[in-house]
């Protein structure tokens, strides 16, 4: 039997933005009825390539064939006519319109030809039932969560009769349960004969759902695989261009004395809602305690209380001394007592984006003796120190005079991590350490965290990435609805058990560790 004609074929696509060659001579064949993954690190050129396919950008060179026919796609209307639908990384919905209005928006050809709302409503209902895409047609977009907004984007594409659906990093904004649901939707779409292109930088998603996968690196298409015939290490190596350690290499912890003792911590927010409902745990020197949970179950509040910026009741002791949890503790007092903090949101809390890298490397620590004495700061020493730390933490480029905002997200994170780890804390609070960070940099940051642990630091790790929690932690506590649902030794649990606790299924096992 001859090979079927590809649903999409790209030949020699190139695209530059000024000096940046975002796509270089890209070729790609996507077979009909398959789920085809495109994987690559941040900046590899994935979104640019898909934007060309959707008529958002014009390629400088190259050819697009849809179902074997050369097709010009000068704008998104042409893409829609060619049967292509796109779910963008940042949704393009009208916030104060209803679901139904958003779905039909732009399809009506002027007021007289407007399809009757009733007809559109019926069609939407049929689509929703066919593909498990339930959503209330009369809900206002801004009132529904991101998971539902994404379903509206998919419905919009299907309503426009898309046969080929492109999803750009669709799970970045989803909880694990929402991501599972999305994958069920994608499988339903595939079963109905749709072709799907899934852009992601997550190896697990590629392995779980795709039939084939193409790898991009620095603007080039570097490899194609059948998913069943490849493996995460092989894909990671293709993405990064060198071997990458996916498993964190660490020896069993040797916990020392308790560093942090938290008793019955409670937080009530401005609306009177209880966000922490009696949290208690202990964390020892030389140990990583991972806090797992779906975002929004109190983990952020816990970090803020310990970081000193949120008021709580209960008691927190650091090395036996009571810690101020009035919410007014000064950052400097926290740092002087031996607490370092890599906040969840590095852009607003961890860095001053307009300041140079060297100023950010010293941020909060400029009173330390290494930087001069009294009121006189030794700027040259601060700059040399920043250069040294940036080199050791592989910040690219290692130029202390560049503004923080000119670094990529992963490199900004390395700047914050370098500053906090190098402060030699007794306790490190670290929230979402690798959010938006490339695989190569993740490996590096994980190594630094483990090596800090091995020097005796107590580490409280908060992450919504269950894989990260499982590979880094020595002990794991799962938060749900402001409580700790259960605690496990990392070596004696797995994603399935933790997933149940994350969903709020009560912990029946007796006793909590430590
Ligand atoms: P990915 O989606 O794989 O993360 P992108 O396609 O967004 O990568 O970006 C590829 C490269 O092109 C990056 O270096 C990015 O900074 C650059 N780039 C993307 N869009 C633009 C644009 N509109 N103007 C200038 N540079 C851009
Ligand atoms: Mg992108």
Automatic annotation (TrEMBL):
GO molecular function, one term: ATP binding
Keyword Glycoprotein on entry: no
SMART domains: AAA (SM00382)
Pfam families: ABC_tran
GO cellular component: plasma membrane
UniProt KW keywords: ATP-binding, Cell membrane, Hydrolase, Membrane, Nucleotide-binding, Repeat, Sugar transport, Translocase, Transport
Transmembrane segments: none
Chief location: membrane
The protein's Enzyme Commission number: 3.6.3.17
Record bears the keyword Transport: yes
Natural source organism: Rubellimicrobium thermophilum DSM 16684
Protein name per its UniProtKB record: Nucleoside ABC transporter ATP-binding protein
Record domain ABC transporter: where: 8-243, 260-506
Compartments it resides in: Cell membrane
Family: Belongs to the ABC transporter superfamily.
Mode of membrane association: Peripheral membrane protein
């Amino acid at each position: 039997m001859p090979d079927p004609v590809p649903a999409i074929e790209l030949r020699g696509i190139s695209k530059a933005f000024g000096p940046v060659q975002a796509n270089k001579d890209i070729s790609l064949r996507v077979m009909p009825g398959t789920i085809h993954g495109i994987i690559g690190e941040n900046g590899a050129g994935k979104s640019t390539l898909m934007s060309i396919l959707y008529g958002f950008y014009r390629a400088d060179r190259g050819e697009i064939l849809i179902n074997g026919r050369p097709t010009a796609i000068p704008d998104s209307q042409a893409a829609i006519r060619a049967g292509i639908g796109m779910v963008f990384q940042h949704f393009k919905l009208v916030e104060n319109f209803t679901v139904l209005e958003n779905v039909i928006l732009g399809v009506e050809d002027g007021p007289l030809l407007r399809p009757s709302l009733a007809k559109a409503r019926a069609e939407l209902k049929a689509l929703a039932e066919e593909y498990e895409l339930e959503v209330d047609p009369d809900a206002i977009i801004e009132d529904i969560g991101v998971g539902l907004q994404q379903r509206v984007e998919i419905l919009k594409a299907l309503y426009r009769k898309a046969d080929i659906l492109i999803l750009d990093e669709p799970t970045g904004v989803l909880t694990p349960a929402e991501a599972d649901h999305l994958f069920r939707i994608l499988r339903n779409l595939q079963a109905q004969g749709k072709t799907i292109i899934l852009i992601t930088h997550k190896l697990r998603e590629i392995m779980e759902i795709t039939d084939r996968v193409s790898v991009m690196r620095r603007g080039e298409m570097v490899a194609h695989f059948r998913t069943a015939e490849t493996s995460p290490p092989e894909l990671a190596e293709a993405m990064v261009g060198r071997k990458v350690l996916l498993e964190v290499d660490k020896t069993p912890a040797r916990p020392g004395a308790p560093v942090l003792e938290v008793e019955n911590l409670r937080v009530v927010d401005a609306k009177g809602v209880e966000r922490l409902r009696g949290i208690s745990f202990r964390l020892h020197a030389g140990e990583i305690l991972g806090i797992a949970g779906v975002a929004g179950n109190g983990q952020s509040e816990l970090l803020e209380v310990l970081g000193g910026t949120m008021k709580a009741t209960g008691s927190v002791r650091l090395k036996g001394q009571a810690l101020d949890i009035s919410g007014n503790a000064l950052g400097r007092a926290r740092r002087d007592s031996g607490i370092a903090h890599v906040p969840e949101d590095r852009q607003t809390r961890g860095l001053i984006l307009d300041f140079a890298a060297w100023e950010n490397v010293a941020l909060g620590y400029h009173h330390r003796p290494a930087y001069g004495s009294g009121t006189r700061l030794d700027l040259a020493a601060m700059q040399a120190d920043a250069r040294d730390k940036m080199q050791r933490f592989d910040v690219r480029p290692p130029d202390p005079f560049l503004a923080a905002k000119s670094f990529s997200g992963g490199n900004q994170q390395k700047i914050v991590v370098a500053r906090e780890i190098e402060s030699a804390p007794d306790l490190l609070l670290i929230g979402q350490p690798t959010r938006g960070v490339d695989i190569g940099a993740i490996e590096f940051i994980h190594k630094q965290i483990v090596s800090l642990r091995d020097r005796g630091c107590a580490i409280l790790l908060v992450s919504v990435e269950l894989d990260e929690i499982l590979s880094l932690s020595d002990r794991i506590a799962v938060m749900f609805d402001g409580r700790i649902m259960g605690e496990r030794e990392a070596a004696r649990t797995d994603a399935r058990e933790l997933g149940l606790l994350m969903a709020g299924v009560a912990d029946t096992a007796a006793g909590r560790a430590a």
